Structures are given as structure tokens and as C-alpha cells.
Amino acid sequence: MVQNKILQSFRTVRSGIIQNSSPLGLIGLITVSVIIILAILAPWIVPHDPFKIDATNRLIPPFWVVDGSMNHILGTDHLGRDILSRLIYGGRVSLLVGFLSVLIAGVIGLFLGLISGYFGGTWIDQFIMRFVDAMLAIPTLLLVLVAIVVFEPGIVTLILVIGLTSWAQYTRLVRGEVLSVKEREFVQSATTLGASKGYIIRKHILPNVLSSFIVVSTIGIATAIMTESSLSFLGLGIQPPDITWGGMLNDGRNYIATSWWIATFPGLAITITVLAITFLGDWLRDILDPKLKKGGDADE
Q: Does pTM surpass 0.85?
């Protein structure tokens, strides 16, 4: 069953953590976990109101710099808003966009990939793959920019646009996995016994493509965060007063020569988050790759 296969994947990850302890993978896992915890607890742990404008505390540097203050550990921006508090709140938006957009893209890509792979060589497969080729031929960021210009920018719009323009890569991956899995003996046996197509896809094929799908989805979250940050930096993404790391970068670009901390810390936050997710995704790939498992097949 799918549920059993998911549990098996988690057990595999757990055993892989013990047997294949990668320093970069552990760093990625710990970093991502800390960022998620901070984002969830943001309303209760931020030292200051991240939206409050305080003209009397404008452009205060970090505490270790001359004229810095421990009251604002990472300093304040051009409107007197606390950088640390805004960083924590900005992480909520970036993670929300990353996870939900990948969820949308993943569901679409997984469904179409399963159908295309199972009916490989038929007109259904040809129709889906030509559509996938058309989507992959156009840069995702360009599609997102066009959609953002047409529709009103916002969190919901950005999540939908990124999700609906990045599903093609998941479809192609899943299709390739399905083409391989459906030739295995347990699938052929189920077909011979008269099992329905839906049953075979749901019970036999889907569980065996989940591992690769999970790995690619993890990397997709990092890509979605980069896309959101890029659009917000350009002023085409999530609009104020919502806080995003890309928006903070945009706020600080005019002060980079005099108040470097305004743009530096959100830039570091984006870099660290994307690297951590990438390290985690690479580690999951090493753990979940069936070729690296003892015993060979990932069959039921």
C-alpha cells in the first residue's frame, strides 16, 4: 500500500541517517529544521514588531559595529524596523511559498507522469509529453513574470503561478520511473491476474516512484524560494506590508554602500536556506536511491 511505502521511505531515511551520515546532509537537516521552527514560532519569539516604523531608530548597525545596539542585534532598516524580526517573519512567507507551490506542481506532475508512463507510446503519452516539452522550452521565470504582470501580485497568486508553471519537470521524472517500474515482474503479474489499471497504478507503481519524487520535490522547494525572492526583489512578487527576504533585499539596495546590513542579512538568509535544502535533497537522494540499497529492487 501507498501508506506502507511512505512509512518504508521514512524508515529508510532514518536508517540512512545512521548508516550514511553525511556532514553536509546533517547540516542541511539541522538548518532546515531550525528555520522551520523559527518560522512557526515567529509571533512569539520575535524581539520587536517587524511592521513597526520607528523614525528615531533608523539605520542602527548590528550590535558588534560602532553605534550598534543589543536592543537591535542585527540593526534596523531605513524605516527603523528591526532586521532580525523581519528576517524571521520573512522566512514564514518564503517557506510557505516554497512548500505550497511545490505541493501544487508535485501533485499535477505526479498525476500526469503516472498516466503518461503507464500508457507510454499511446496518444495519451504523446499528448502529455508534447505539452511537457512546450512548458520546458519556455524558461519558468519568464512564464512566472508574464503571469504576475497579468494577475495581481500577492502570496496566493505567486504560489499558484509558481506551482502551475513548474510541474513539467516532475511529470518527466515520474514518467521515466513508471516506464521502468511497469516492466517489473510484480506489475506484469498483477496485469495478468486481471487487476484494473487504476489499482496497478495506485498499489504497485505509485509506491515505487515516491522516493525519486520526494528527492526532486525537496530540490524544488529551494528553486521556488529563489523564484519568489527574485520576483520580490524586482518588485513583482509579494507586495508590502507582507515581509519577504526578496523584498528586504529590494529595500536595502539603495543603502548598500552606507548601511550594508539591510541587504546583507536577507541575502545570507536566502543563501543559507537554499544551500541547506540542496544539501538535504542530495543526502535524501543518496539514501533513497534504489541502486544504493542492498538487495537491489525496491519492490513490494
A: no
